[in-house]
Design brief:
The complex is a heterodimer of chains A (181) and B (176).
Chain A lengths: L1 H13 L23 E3 L9 H5 L5 E5 L4 E7 L8 H5 L5 E3 L14 E7 L46 H8 L10
Antiparallel strand pairs in A: 1-4, 2-3, 3-5
Chain B lengths: L1 H8 L5 E6 L5 H8 L13 E3 L7 E5 L7 H10 L5 E5 H6 L21 E3 L6 H12 L9 E4 L7 H19 L1
Parallel strand pairs in B: 1-2, 1-3, 3-4, 4-5
Chain lengths: 181, 176
């Protein structure tokens, strides 16, 4: 009697078969329209910093090293893969790749560093005044930007409201300490 | 390097302790998802335990909020060594969207030493399995820092110095 029930159980188990994936040993691609790590196409990027302006987690930092070079640093450690940057990019330079195997033991492995060559306007130095005004054109910050790449911190100030003393403080900027330790 | 040490220290089954430090429950559901028969991490001997005193690995999910900070520290101290900490999700890795808000200490690394980072919001169950397999030394690391440049700018200093030296040799010959 008990043997019959055991055989019945075995048959019941065999009916669905093995459902377990052999994942780490066999590749398992992400589904279509999956948003993984964003990737910048440095040949298309114009350095408008729209992505940095719209990032909810502020993972994208912009620093103007000089008139011509603008460094754009994407720190993927706190990126939520919302795809806002790819949506807002006017040149479609950002694509959300289906990469999800981003596990690492070093946070610097999931960063992307772009060195952009900025053209200069002969008259005003940096910025072109756009005739059409869209949301991207109305970016809050104009002029040079000094986000702290070392502390991985966005500093919401540009040359419009910058004084030399504040710039010096920016170089040594650290996040304020938190209570509760 | 760390994978080698982990392989040496944890040759047998890993018992994981799931520590929620103020997560939105997304990462927690994904962690429970990898224990289901579909993903089945018990293939690698991974078992979820209820107490940090039984655990080898802490799966930390959530940006460590201010009320949970001492509790996370105590749970980490209660684990017997050698121990590993996995930051699961963007919040545990770097604080997520809340990295500088008033009630969040900004990621798991501020409270406990995080050994492996699994970013994602939430990470796919495959991504968590990949992270654990990375620690066990079953797979190779795929993430690497990317550096892109539009142009080489300014003029290559090395070439300019070399050209100057070549010219300077002629002057030296002439001066002799």
């Amino acid at each position: 009697m008990w043997l019959a029930s055991k055989i019945k159980q075995v048959l019941m188990v065999m009916k669905p078969g093995v459902v377990t994936l052999k994942y780490p040993f066999e590749p398992r691609p992400a589904p279509e329209n999956f948003r993984g790590a964003p990737h910048w196409d440095h040949t298309k990027c114009i350095g408008c910093a729209g992505c940095a302006e719209h990032c909810p987690a502020r993972t994208i930092m912009v620093r103007d090293l000089c008139q011509e070079i603008r460094v754009l640093l994407y720190d993927g450690s706190r990126c939520t893969y919302c795809g806002r940057c790819a949506e807002v990019c006017p040149e479609k330079a950002i694509v959300m790749t289906p990469r999800f195997e981003q596990a690492t033991d070093d946070r610097n492995d999931i960063t992307e560093n772009l060195e952009l060559f900025m053209l200069t306007c002969q008259r005003c130095g940096r910025c072109y005044d756009m005739e059409t005004t869209s949301a991207i054109d109305k970016l809050g910050l104009t002029g040079y930007r000094y986000d702290s790449l070392e502390a991985r911190t966005v500093i919401r100030k540009a040359t419009d409201s910058f004084r030399p003393k504040e710039l010096e403080a920016t170089e040594r900027y650290e996040r304020p300490g938190k209570t509760g330790d | 390097m760390l994978a080698k040490i982990a392989k040496k220290c944890f040759p047998r089954s890993l018992w994981v302790y799931h520590c929620n430090s103020g997560a939105c429950n997304g990462c927690d559901i994904e962690i429970l998802n990898i224990l289901t028969p579909y993903y089945d991490v018990e293939r690698f001997g991974i078992k979820l335990v209820g107490s940090p005193r039984h655990a080898d690995v802490m799966l930390l999910s959530g940006a460590v909020t201010r009320p949970t900070l001492p509790l996370v520290k105590r749970a980490f101290a209660a684990m017997p060594g050698p121990k590993l900490v996995f930051g699961i999700g963007s919040c545990a890795v770097g604080g997520g969207c809340w990295f500088d808000t008033y009630n969040v200490t900004g990621g798991g690394a501020t409270a406990v030493p995080v050994n492996y980072y699994v970013p994602g919001c939430p990470p796919r169950p495959e991504a968590i399995i990949y992270g654990v397999a990375l620690a066990l030394g079953l797979v190779d690391k795929k993430a690497a820092p990317v550096e892109l440049k539009q142009v080489e700018f300014p003029i290559d200093v090395y070439e300019r110095n070399k050209a100057w030296e070549e010219r300077n040799v002629i002057y030296e010959v002439l001066n002799k």
